[in-house]
Write a structure and sequence with these properties.
Distance between the termini: 56 Å
Oligomer: single chain
Number of domains: 1
Radius of gyration: 21 Å
Strand content: 35-45%
Number of strands: 11
Largest sheet: 11 strands, antiparallel
Low-confidence stretches: 1-27
Shape: globular
CATH architecture: Clam
CATH class: Mainly Beta
CATH superfamily: Lipoprotein localisation LolA/LolB/LppX
CATH topology: outer membrane lipoprotein receptor (LolB), chain A
Length: 188
């Protein structure tokens, strides 16, 4: 009888363990954010620079690329259904991802699927990390993932956890993202 009880107890423990869900690592999901900054993209003999506002929510990203005078040069909305880029003359481009959309419409790729993680100083969960270095404060200083090399610069305050600048390079393309401010009260 005690063997039966021990076996039943073991089976119950296994079944209960199988029912427990493990909470995802909170750092594996990018938190919503709203940033204002500047972006410079160069490669293949061309360069593009603009002001940037990027609002990231759990199910949608919205980006505005603007001229120095504040005129919207491109408005990008991306969600699970795909991405749409609208130009100042209201011409629309559509694609399955922001990366392919910007490559087709603007001539350069914006790796938004990874960048929404990288901007918060964390690797994207879907791709393997080949190199990861941290600075003396324990913050990510270099990340190589999905063919991109991302270098981080932080504000002078040693307690700063959010980057001030990201420099991305891949196959001759360079992207410099300078963050002037993280907007909103619930900064990541």
């Amino acid at each position: 009888m005690s063997v039966v009880r021990a076996f039943a107890g073991a089976v119950s423990a296994v079944l209960l363990t199988a029912c427990i869900t493990v909470a995802p690592d909170p750092r594996s999901v990018p938190t919503p954010f709203d940033v204002v900054g500047r972006v410079l993209i160069s490669g293949e003999g061309r360069a593009f620079s603009s002001s940037l506002r990027w609002r990231h929510e759990a199910t949608e990203d919205e980006l505005w690329l603007m001229s120095p005078a504040g005129q919207t040069l491109a408005h990008i909305v991306a969600d699970a259904a795909g991405a749409i880029l609208t130009t100042p003359d209201l011409q629309e481009y559509r694609a399955i991802s922001v990366d392919s959309l910007t490559r087709r419409a603007l001539g350069w790729s914006l790796p938004l699927s990874g960048l929404r993680y990288w901007i918060q100083s964390m690797p994207a969960p879907a791709a393997n990390v080949t190199v990861s270095n941290r600075d003396s404060a324990g913050r990510l200083s270099l990340l190589e993932q999905d063919g991109w090399s991302i270098r981080y610069s932080y504000p002078d305050a040693p307690s700063a956890v959010l980057p001030r600048r990201l420099d991305l390079t891949r196959n001759g393309q360079q992207i410099r993202l300078v963050i002037d401010s993280w907007r909103g009260e619930d900064k990541p």
